[in-house]
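Key result, reporting period 2: structure in, sequence out.
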């Protein structure tokens, strides 16, 4: 289960302060009642939850902008579908696998999650259990969004949705239980405040496995190592998606403080917001400088992914770093995008939206660098967690991708790919006035 905030202790301290003399009462920090703390903590989860849910719109717009016109409707459909599947699966199996009965082990329990009643014993948790479930569920959906963008333009819809069921209902919750569910990595002292590895690298490993098994888009790579650019449909949409994700990240990181019932908690949340913003800004600036130096032109798609890589990098520890450290962490994340994107091209791994550099590689960097600002973490334990998550997700994802490939197939035909998935898979084009054989009056 999530680390619980004990409410009764705060109430007891308040009573003692009031019974003491005026001097002691003035020196003691003011405390609110358990009911008020419950309200503020629940409010934090709800605000964080709808901000992270709004990131689903960010992923949809980012992907819609970075795929070609003939595949935009498909990406919109995939994103609303995966969010919905994640919600159902996190209720059916996910939450209990991740948080119930892990007890230092490797997995929780099976079965649908039942929300506890509000009030009474529920006050002992310090927040509404329904708000906690919602907040954890939207993180689960984020993991699937990462896979969606990487595999765009050539994967069949139904195999992708079936993989989403497995990822959100089993792979992500089991992996998450190791740390956030008080599992074996938590016992070791592994640190991942808001999910650079638990969310982003897990999604990145699943995407990498799928990209290798699925293969590149037709025409992306030539026989002599030539890389053919396949420009996206709309840079305004991709930019809008990036800003939506940036906004949602304040809920992603800030609400991971898990409490808002004290002055200290609210101050920490404010610091998390500031550090999160600085890391993203540094990621953008480093990216535009490097692309200008290396390519003599600033690449807008690199700049957008630089912001996201800065956000992913700071997610493992957004509270402890100083402003300078946050800028450094986010700036390195931006540099990772610039250098890893061409590396993937050399390896002929086709990542349509750049999710592997942003979420996987920057997620590894952000997790590994936690001890720079958090003295309670160690590089050895951080590396152990990174390797464990990578091995588990790669193996589990690869096995299931191969099962799907050998049974129902995962890739559309060359002819269908050329026509576009909007037309052949769902029959609704995003921009019908530009489509072949169709007009709009």
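The corresponding designed sequence is given below.
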């Amino acid at each position: 289960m999530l680390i619980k905030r004990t409410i009764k202790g705060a109430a007891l301290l308040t009573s003692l302060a009031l019974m003491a003399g005026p001097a002691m009462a003035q020196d003691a920090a003011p405390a609110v009642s358990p009911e008020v703390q419950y309200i503020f903590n629940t409010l934090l989860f709800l605000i964080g939850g709808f901000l992270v849910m709004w990131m689903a719109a960010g992923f949809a717009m980012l992907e819609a902008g970075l795929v070609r016109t003939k595949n935009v409707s498909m990406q919109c459909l995939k994103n609303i579908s995966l969010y919905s599947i994640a919600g159902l699966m996190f209720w059916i199996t996910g939450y209990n696998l991740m948080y119930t009965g892990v007890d230092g082990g490797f997995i929780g329990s099976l079965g649908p999650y039942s929300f506890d009643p509000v009030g009474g014993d529920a006050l002992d948790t310090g927040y509404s259990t329904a708000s906690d479930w919602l907040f954890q569920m939207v993180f689960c959906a984020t993991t699937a969004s990462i896979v969606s963008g990487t595999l765009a333009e050539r994967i069949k819809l139904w195999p992708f949705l079936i993989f989403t069921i497995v990822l959100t209902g089993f792979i992500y919750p089991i992996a998450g239980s190791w740390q956030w569910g008080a599992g074996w990595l938590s016992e070791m002292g592994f640190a991942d405040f808001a999910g650079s590895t638990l969310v982003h690298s897990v999604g990145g490993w699943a995407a990498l496995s799928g990209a290798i098994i699925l293969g590149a888009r037709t025409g992306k790579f030539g026989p002599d190592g030539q890389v053919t650019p396949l420009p996206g449909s709309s840079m305004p949409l991709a930019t809008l998606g990036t800003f939506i994700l940036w906004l949602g990240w304040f809920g992603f990181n800030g609400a991971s403080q898990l409490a808002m019932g004290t002055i200290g908690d609210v101050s920490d949340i404010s610091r998390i917001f500031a550090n999160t913003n600085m890391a993203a800004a540094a990621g953008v600036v480093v990216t535009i400088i490097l692309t200008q130096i290396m390519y003599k032109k600033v690449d807008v798609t690199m700049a957008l992914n630089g912001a996201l890589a800065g956000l992913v990098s700071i997610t493992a520890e957004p509270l402890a770093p100083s402003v300078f450290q946050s800028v450094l962490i986010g700036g390195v994340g931006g540099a990772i995008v610039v250098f890893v994107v061409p590396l993937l091209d050399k390896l002929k791994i086709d990542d349509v939206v750049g999710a592997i550099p942003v979420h996987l590689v920057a997620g590894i960097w952000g997790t590994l660098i936690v001890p720079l600002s958090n003295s309670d973490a160690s590089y050895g334990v951080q590396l152990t967690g990174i390797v464990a998550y990578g091995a588990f997700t790669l193996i589990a994802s690869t096995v299931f991708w191969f099962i799907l490939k050998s049974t129902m197939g995962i890739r559309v035909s060359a002819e269908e790919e050329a026509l576009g998935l909007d037309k052949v898979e769902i029959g609704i084009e995003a921009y019908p006035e530009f489509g072949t054989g169709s007009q709009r009056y």
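The chain is about 65% helix and 0% strand. The radius of gyration is 23 Å. This case is discussed further under Risks and Mitigation.
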